[in-house]
Amino acid sequence: MLTIGVYTSGGDAPGMNATVRAVVRMAHSHNANVIGIRSGYTGMIENDFVPLDLRSVANVIQRGGTFLKTGRCPEFLQPENRKIAFDNLVKAGINALVCIGGDGSFRGAHALNQEYKIPVIGVPGTIDNDIYGTDFTIGFDTAVNTALEAIDRIRDTATSHNRIFIVEVMGRDSGYLALDVGIAGGAQEIFIPEEINDINNCIQRLKDSIKNGKQYSIFVAAEGQKPGRAYDLCDAIKKKTGLDAKVCILGHIQRGGSPTARDRVIASALGAGAVDALLRGESDKMAGIRDGKLVLVPLADAISKRPPVRKDKILLARILSS
Ligand code: F6P
């Protein structure tokens, strides 16, 4: 009898609940059991499990956050804690896992699979959209739209005052969110952790566009390793141009909220796809979406490779906002 342990791990992302729902409903439709593991790897180490029947996932498809809770668990990097976790899984009768999270979470799942041969399937859930092997991660679309709603409001006040705004979006290591928010939000400049966008050149372009009649401008910056770096950009702009510039840091607002239709559809397809993969004997893979089709990608690739960074989007934003 297949008993799947499902958990959400790392930063929460809108659509995680819809994914858990799909895992539970798909598993039950094939007479498999599901046990929820609370707070990701912490719950695995601390034996925090909850059986999930069909009704336990009623009324969650539209809810942001994750009712299973989540967290980052550095303790799981230690093999002795993975041993404790695996023993707890065995005691609970769990003989397969679905891990919903980002690359850090997949590293833990991959390690468990390698060490204890427990079948695992990963489902990409992160607002960052930075997982190799899938065109979309669950939560990305919602986060982009949340940030856009904010930018549209900022644009109103920016135009009223003829101001420059630097909007800081999330993304510690990756700028995929910033790139899409920047394009869709009509940003003039986009700053991402993967590529240096020289501030002096940006300022020169800003001055040129002002000469051409532009009265206000939106810059989008990913937070990178130092949340709040938008203030450094703002200071540089003010100092070098004498223009009025303001900062808006969107922060964790982007992680919350009801998932968009697109995120719910992806979550449903990938959650169900993960269970289907386990039933077919697949393991150590991630369920992803590529060119509109469900694909399975080795977890080893998902954690060691990066999707290509579309630096051309920075240029596109620049041209279209001139
Ligand atoms: O990985 C998702 C993410 O939201 C990143 O965009 C962000 O840099 C990071 O998590 C913030 O993590 P935390 O909520 O643990 O501060």
List descriptors.
single chain, 322 residues, alpha/beta, Rossmann fold, 7-stranded mixed sheet, 4-stranded parallel sheet, 18% strand, binds 6-O-phosphono-beta-D-fructofuranose
In CATH, the topology of the largest domain is named Rossmann fold
Number of domains: 2
What ligand species are in this complex? 6-O-phosphono-beta-D-fructofuranose
Work out the number of β strands: 11
Q: What fraction strand?
A: 15-25%
In which order are the strands of the major sheet placed?
3-2-1-4-5-10-11
Helix-strand topology string? EHEHEHEHEHEHEHEHEHEEHH
User: Helicity range of the residues?
Assistant: 40-55%
Overall residue-averaged pLDDT value:
97
CATH classification, class level of the largest domain: Alpha Beta
Question: Architecture of the largest domain in CATH?
Answer: 3-Layer(aba) Sandwich
What is the first-to-last residue Cα distance? Answer: 61 Å
Number of helices: 11
3D shape: elongated
Structural class of the secondary elements?
Answer: alpha/beta
Q: What would you call the quaternary organization?
A: single chain
Low-pLDDT runs? none
Main sheet overview = 7 strands, mixed
Radius of gyration over all CA atoms, rounded? 21 Å
Short description:
With 322 residues, this protein is of the alpha/beta class.
Chain-wise SSE layout:
Blueprint: E1 3-8, H1 16-29, E2 33-37, H2 41-45, E3 49-51, H3 79-91, E4 96-101, H4 103-116, E5 120-124, H5 140-161, E6 164-169, H6 176-184, E7 189-191, H7 199-211, E8 217-222, H8 230-241, E9 245-249, H9 261-279, E10 285-290, E11 293-298, H10 299-304, H11 312-320
Parallel strand pairs: 1-2, 1-4, 4-5, 5-10, 6-8, 6-9, 7-8
Antiparallel strand pairs: 2-3, 10-11
The protein binds 6-O-phosphono-beta-D-fructofuranose.
Residues 11, 72, 102, 126-128, 170-172, 223, 255 line the site of 6-O-phosphono-beta-D-fructofuranose (F6P).
